[in-house]
Amino acid sequence: MNIRRMIGKTDLDVLIRDLISAGKRVIAPVRCGDSQHEALEYAPVRSPAEIHWAGPLPLRSLKEIIFPPTETLFGWKQVKSSVEIEANPNGFRETVIIGARPCDAAAFEIVDRVMGWDYRDDLWFGRRQATTILTVACPHGDESCFCPAVGLSPESARGADWFLTPADGGFEAAILTQKGEALLEPYKAQWPEPNNFSKQQLSGLESKVRANLKVQPESIRQWLEKHFDDPLWKHVALRCHGCGACAFVCPACHCFDIVDEPEGIDRGRRRRNWDACQPALFTLHGSGHNPRKDQAARFRQRIMHKFNYYPARFGEVLCTGCGRCVRVCAAGMDLIAILAEIGRRSEEAGAAS
């Protein structure tokens, strides 16, 4: 599919208003917090004026749009000696995400692999199918970004139905999927194909974030495969609080727990809730045994899962280099520094062999 259109800012505003008027949920970056600090979050909008195209990466990822922090799987009710199951209503609200950052959009395709592996997660794929993603070339990067090190870039179109590149007076839109083409169809004749226009230059941003981490995932994976019991894990995990904040803001982390929550003596609901491998309770057995008995083992699992186990199973690094885990860590743990150290050790091991 090679459909491109030049979309003026006013044209895009018309599209957004039409979507909202049609009852579709429109999610976009909006300002949050006080006026002293520029911070963004993805949230439903009621007007195109609320959308903030520039600025930093939103504080939380898009993950919760497709994978809510908590959701009901089904209800149950005891009727005498039997139990009746109350299924959830079918159907997912049609959603359009506008202004998604490349690192967030790419995560959906990466997590698709595990959600459709040995069991198809219908809740995940139901929302995926109902959601159209308009990604915009990243307008901002900082010292915590490292998307080029994991195969992406500020101009990566992975996971997008439209990819928007800022240009004079609007955007150049690359239409990449059938969902994207369906969204374009009512406006196709009105919006011209790109001719001579001036794209914003983003190459400087890519060079900037590329310099943050120069280690390649394969180098990291090779070292991890041979160093499960390395003393490095105890050293780097000394500061880890086990709070799980890194996993909750990560666009690619997807661990969850399933619990039955009573709502009276004869009924309740089974819910799926986000969980994370960092808190001690995640692997605590009913017997009291915990196979990951200390924080070093739990932190090792996080790195191993993202950069060794997941690539071995699915051929994908379970990380998009967004850097949120670095920014949010109350203990100041820096994933970039940790990966750089692993990369350094991998190089030394290769030179010694």
- Overall mean pLDDT: 93
Q: Major beta sheet, specifics?
A: 7 strands, mixed
Low-confidence segments, ≥5 residues, pLDDT <50?
A: none
Which structural category do the helix and sheet elements fall into? Answer: alpha/beta
Strand content: 15-25%
Strand order of the largest sheet: 1-9-8-7-6-2-3
Helix content: 25-40%
> What coarse outline follows from CA principal-axis ratios?
globular
Question: For the CA atoms, what is the radius of gyration?
Answer: 22 Å
Distance between the termini: 47 Å
**Count of extended strands:** 11
**Total of DSSP H or I helical runs spanning 4+ residues:** 12
Order of helices and strands: EHEEHEEEHHEEEHHHHHEEHHH
What's the topology here?
Layout: E1 3-8, H1 9-21, E2 25-32, E3 39-44, H2 63-66, E4 70-79, E5 82-87, E6 95-100, H3 102-115, H4 122-129, E7 131-136, E8 162-167, E9 170-175, H5 178-184, H6 203-210, H7 217-225, H8 232-236, H9 245-249, E10 256-262, E11 267-274, H10 295-314, H11 324-328, H12 335-352
Parallel strand pairs: 2-6, 6-7, 7-8
Antiparallel strand pairs: 1-9, 2-3, 4-5, 4-11, 8-9, 10-11
Helix pairs in contact: 7-10, 7-12
Detailed description of the structure:
The structure is a single chain. β8 (162-167) and β9 (170-175) form a beta hairpin. A seven-stranded mixed beta sheet has the order 1-9-8-7-6-2-3. The chain has a four-stranded antiparallel beta sheet with strand order 5-4-11-10, with no helix packed on it. α7 packs across α10 (295-314) and α7 crosses α12 (335-352). 33% of the residues lie in helices and 21% in strands. With 353 residues, it is of the alpha/beta class. The model has no long low-confidence stretch (mean pLDDT 93). It has helices spanning 9-21, 63-66, 102-115, 122-129, 178-184, 203-210, 217-225, 232-236, 245-249, 295-314, 324-328, 335-352, and strands at 3-8, 25-32, 39-44, 70-79, 82-87, 95-100, 131-136, 162-167, 170-175, 256-262, 267-274.
